[in-house]
Amino acid sequence: MAIKVLFSKLPFDVSEYRIDSLEKSVGAQWRIGLQRGSDLKQYGQSLLGRNLIERLVNEHCSSCTDLFINDWGKPMLTTAEYFSIAHSENIVVAAFSKTCPVGIDVECVRSIEVNDYTDYFTAGEMASFAGFAGQYNFYSSWTAKEAIAKAIGEGMNIDFRQMAPIENGLYEYRAEKWKTDSVKIGADIVCKLAVQYACQDQEFEVNFINWTSLLVK
Q1: Which of helix, strand or coil describes residue 161?
Q2: Which of 82, 185, 68, 142 is nearest to 134 (CA)?
Q3: pTM of the full predicted structure?
Q4: Which stretches of 128-192 are DSSP H helices?
Q5: Is the pLDDT score of 65 beyond 80?
Q6: Among residues 77, 101, 74, 98, which one has the least CA distance to residue 86?
Q7: Contact 105, 181 (CB under 8 A)
Q8: How do residues 202-215 score in pLDDT, each as one tens digit?
Q9: Structural domains of the chain, with CATH
Q10: Do residues 106 and 185 make contact, with C-beta atoms less than 8 angstroms apart?
Q11: Is the separation of the CB atoms in 80 and 131 below 8 Å?
Q12: Could you say which DSSP state residue 212 is in?
């Protein structure tokens, strides 16, 4: 089965009423680890991500029912299936695979000071962030490494400088190779999908879903 990717867009001005409806649309076990705080937008993004994954799991893995939070704060299935969630601004993406560890990350491109990220990249990588294409190169590298970290399941606890880029989206970390691919979401949005090198030839399908179709009426 191909890796499944869903993405959606949550309005910047989403109302509390809509958040309540979105919350009701997510099964209790899929809300594990989520807490409703003062930041409704962030909570809504998390709910939407869980909703997308719940939808993928229900469609493609009826036996995948138990969710837990690992030692690094990542939600995972107790069975041998894999998923990943990411969001940036109003974009939420989710990926699901029945056979391969998978990670996904997304960033809405905006002007940043790349020198603030020297702890995450080697000197050679930092040099590639200069010039006209520097911002895109940064986001491409950042999302690739984040996606790999999510696939491994340790998130930001990983030393990103130890993820060595080899060629054409291929990275090596802890003597294991990872393949990253670009996922087309929209203009000024960089999204990367990461899988183990052994799964590099596995195809992936990308679909958009209107978030309002997920709401409990």
Answers
A1: helix
A2: 142
A3: 0.93
A4: 134-152
A5: no
A6: 74
A7: no
A8: 899 999 999 999 88
A9: 3-214 (3.90.470.20)
A10: yes
A11: no
A12: G
